[in-house]
Design goal:
The protein has one domain (3-115). 73% of the residues lie in helices and 0% in strands. The protein has five helices and no strands. It has helices spanning 3-30, 39-58, 63-74, 80-89, 95-115.
Length: 125
């Protein structure tokens, strides 16, 4: 496995966390699971999607994408991992369309954050 493949796997895990956490939060709230109200998890999830929105609005290439692309210039062959994860993660849509999708998804995360809030901070007094 190449270095570029490892970066791609980390990037894929980031995407799965951002996208997959939302239905997990909804399902967990419905099932009354306490982990969905974990402050670290919820704030990290909110920050992760806000990072994506900020990159998109600023026109910045994702650092993981740039790093992978830089590593791929050194390598000549396409790996199985690259072929399939790229098909899952990258779409040929105009940047504006992707930005709108990211913003709408971030809005959904924010509404979820408000309607299913993280557990309140405990006082240690």
């Amino acid at each position: 496995m190449s270095s570029a493949d490892l970066v791609l796997i980390v990037h894929f895990c980031y995407v799965v966390f951002v996208v997959g956490s939302l239905p997990v939060i909804w399902l967990g709230a419905w099932l009354k699971c306490t982990f969905v109200r974990n402050r670290w998890f919820r704030y990290l999830h909110l920050a992760a999607i806000l990072w994506v929105v900020a990159e998109s609005l600023l026109g910045v290439v994702c650092p993981l994408t740039a790093w992978e692309n830089s590593l791929r210039q050194v390598e000549t062959n396409h790996s199985f991992i690259q072929q399939w994860l790229h098909k899952i993660m990258f779409y040929t849509l105009p940047e504006g369309v992707l930005t709108v999708i990211y913003i709408l998804f971030a809005g959904l995360v924010a509404v979820t954050f408000k309607s299913i809030p993280p557990a309140p901070r405990r006082n240690l007094d």
